[in-house]
Amino acid sequence: LLDAESAIRRYNRRAKQIFSIPEGDAVGRHCWEIAHGTSAPIPGCPVERSRKSKQRESMELEIGGRWYRITADPILDDSGELTGFVHTVSDITEQKDAADALAEKSEYLAAVFDAMNQALFIIDGETQEILGVNKQTCEMYGCTKEELVFRSTDTLALEDPPYSAIDARRWFDAAREKGPQ
C-alpha cells in the first residue's frame, strides 16, 4: 500500500520475499528504491502512469530471473483526489514460460503444415471461409496466402464435379457432421 507520494505504508510477507526486504526497512521508502534500487521511478512505471490517468495501470517486468505483472490501482477520495495506491506484484513466470512454449509449438506446427506436400486448407466449417493455407496450396493455385485467406472456398472451386462449389459444400457439411472426408 503506497501513499500519494509513492512511499510504502504497508506490505505483505510475499513482498518481503520477492524483494528481500529486512523487517521494517520498507515503510516510508519509495517503491522504486526497494524494487529497483533507483532514486526515481523506472520508465513505464505503473504507479506514475496511474498517478496521471487515475486508473489501473500495469506492466510486465523481469526481476531476478522471474517475471512479474506489476499493477497500480489509484485510491481516490470522495472528491476524486489521489490519496494512494494499491500496488500489486504477481509472479507470472510460469504463465510466460507456458506462453513461450505454446508459441514455439505453434511455430513448429505451422512449419510442418507448410512443409506438407499436399495442398492443405483450414476452413471455417460454418461459413466455408478459408482461414489458412499451406505453401503447396499457393503453388497449386498460383497465388499468395494473403490472396486466399478470408475468401470463400468457392474462389477455388472448379466448374465440374467432383470439384464444383456445390460438391465442396457437401464435403464441408459432411466433415462438420461426420468427421474427415
Question: Which features does this protein show?
Answer:
elongated; 181 residues; 6 strands; alpha+beta; 4-stranded antiparallel β-sheet; single chain; 38% helix
Topology overview:
Layout: E1 2-3, H1 13-19, H2 31-36, H3 46-53, E2 57-63, E3 66-76, E4 82-91, H4 93-115, E5 121-123, E6 130-133, H5 135-141, H6 145-148, H7 165-178
Describe the fold and architecture.
With about 180 residues, the chain is an alpha+beta fold. About 40% of the residues lie in helices and about 20% in strands. It has helices at about 15-20, 30-35, 45-55, 95-115, 135-140, 145-150, 165-180, and strands spanning about 1-5, 55-65, 65-75, 80-90, 120-125, 130-135. The strands form two sheets. The chain has a four-stranded antiparallel sheet with strand order 1-4-3-2, sandwiched between helices. It has a two-stranded antiparallel sheet with strand order 5-6. A hairpin with a 5-residue loop joins β3 and β4. The protein is elongated and about 80 Å long. About 10% of the residues are buried. The mean pLDDT is about 90.
